[in-house]
C-alpha cells in the first residue's frame, strides 16, 4: 500500500471515523511494502527503522485538529519509534524543552522559540507548515467585528463591547492574543468580561461558545470543532494573523538522556516530501480547505543550529 493510498483512505473515511488502529495498519503495510519493494530501502519520505521511543512536546492545535492522529502512527510504523505526545500550550512545551524533559518540540510560538535556540536548548529547527489565526464570535456579531478594517480595529471593537475568552496559558495563541491587544493599544486586563481559561484551544472554544463571547483561535482547531459550535469567523486575513509551526530537536549535548536519533528522525519525517503532501491534503475533503499549508520547501537549512 502506498502513502497515497493511505491519504485516500483518510479523505474517504474522514478523520472522525478514522481510527488510529486503521491508520497504523495501513502505515505498517506501507512500511513493509516499501522495504520489500525497494530492496530494503525506505520509501520516499520515510526514515530507516531505528526503534526506541521519544517524547514529543507540542501545541494543542496539532492534537485538537487531528493531524497527529494521522502523522504519529505513520511515523511509528515507518521507524519503529514509539512516540509519547504531550500536547500542551507552546509555552509549556518549550519549558519542557528548556528542562530537557522532551526529545522534540513542534511549536507555533516563534518569538518564544528563539531565546531557547540562542541558549542552545533547541537545535536543528525546521519550518514545517503554517495556517492562520482567526477571530471567532457569536452569531449576530454584537461587537460588529466584521466591519473592522484591520485586526487592531477588530480588537478595539471587542474591547468596547466586552466578552472575550482567552486561553491564558502562555501558549503561542495566548502570546499572539496579547500582542494583538498591545498593537491595538488596549490593556487586556481592562476589557469587560474577559476571562482566561488556562486550557487548550478546544476547551477555550467551547467556553467562548457557552459565554457567547469572542476568542482568538487557530483555524485548524476551529474547523475541526466547527460543527459543535455556534461561533462564526468574524475576522481573518493578513500577515499579522499568520501561524507558523517549527520542529526542533532538544539539544542532546546540553540535556543528557535526550533521544536525539529518534527526534531527528521525527523532524526529517515531518519535512519529507510525502509527509508534506499529506499535510497539505489533510482536511480538504471534510472541511473544504486544508487545515495546514506545508512549508518545508520554502526555507532552506535549519532555524536553529
From TrEMBL:
Q: Which parts of the sequence belong to the PBP domain?
A: 48-274
Keywords for this protein:
Signal
Gene3D superfamilies annotated for this entry? Periplasmic binding protein-like II
Which is an annotated Pfam family here?
Answer: PBP_like_2
* Superkingdom, natural source: Bacteria
Q: Which residues cross the membrane?
A: none
Signal peptide feature range:
1-36
The protein's name: Tungstate transport system substrate-binding protein
Specify the species: Tepidiforma thermophila (strain KCTC 52669 / CGMCC 1.13589 / G233)
Where is the organism placed in the taxonomic lineage, from the top? Bacteria, Bacillati, Chloroflexota, Tepidiformia, Tepidiformales
Amino acid at each position: 500500500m502506498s502513502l497515497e493510498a493511505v491519504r485516500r483512505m483518510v479523505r474517504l473515511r474522514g478523520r472522525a471515523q478514522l481510527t488510529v488502529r486503521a491508520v497504523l495498519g495501513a502505515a505498517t503495510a506501507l512500511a513493509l511494502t516499501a522495504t520489500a519493494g525497494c530492496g530494503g530501502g525506505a520509501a520516499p519520505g520515510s526514515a530507516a527503522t531505528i526503534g526506541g521511543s521519544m517524547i514529543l512536546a507540542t501545541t494543542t492545535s496539532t492534537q485538537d485538529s487531528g493531524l497527529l492522529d494521522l502523522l504519529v502512527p505513520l511515523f511509528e510504523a515507518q521507524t519503529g519509534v514509539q512516540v509519547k505526545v504531550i500536547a500542551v500550550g507552546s509555552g509549556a512545551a518549550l519549558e519542557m524543552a528548556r528542562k530537557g524533559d522532551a526529545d522534540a518540540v513542534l511549536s507555533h510560538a516563534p518569538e518564544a522559540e528563539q531565546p531557547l535556540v540562542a541558549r542552545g536548548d533547541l537545535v536543528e529547527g525546521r519550518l514545517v507548515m503554517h495556517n492562520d489565526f482567526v477571530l471567532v464570535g457569536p452569531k449576530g456579531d454584537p461587537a460588529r467585528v466584521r466591519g473592522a478594517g484591520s485586526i487592531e480595529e477588530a480588537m478595539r471593537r471587542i474591547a468596547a463591547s466586552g466578552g472575550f475568552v482567552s486561553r491564558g496559558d502562555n501558549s503561542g495563541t495566548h502570546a499572539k492574543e496579547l500582542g494583538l491587544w498591545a498593537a491595538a493599544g488596549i490593556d487586556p486586563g481592562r476589557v469587560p468580561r474577559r476571562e482566561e481559561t488556562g486550557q487548550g484551544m478546544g476547551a477555550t472554544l467551547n467556553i467562548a461558545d457557552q459565554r457567547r463571547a469572542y476568542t482568538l483561535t487557530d483555524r485548524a482547531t476551529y474547523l475541526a470543532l466547527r460543527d459543535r459550535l455556534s461561533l462564526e469567523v468574524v475576522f481573518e486575513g493578513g500577515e499579522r494573523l499568520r501561524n507558523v509551526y517549527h520542529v526542533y530537536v532538544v539539544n542532546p549535548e546540553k540535556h543528557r538522556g535526550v533521544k536525539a536519533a529518534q527526534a531527528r528522525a521525527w523532524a526529517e519525517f515531518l519535512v519529507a516530501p510525502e509527509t508534506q503532501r499529506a499535510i497539505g491534503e489533510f482536511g480538504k475533503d471534510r472541511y473544504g480547505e486544508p487545515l495546514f499549508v506545508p512549508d518545508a520547501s520554502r526555507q532552506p537549512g535549519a532555524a536553529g543550529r
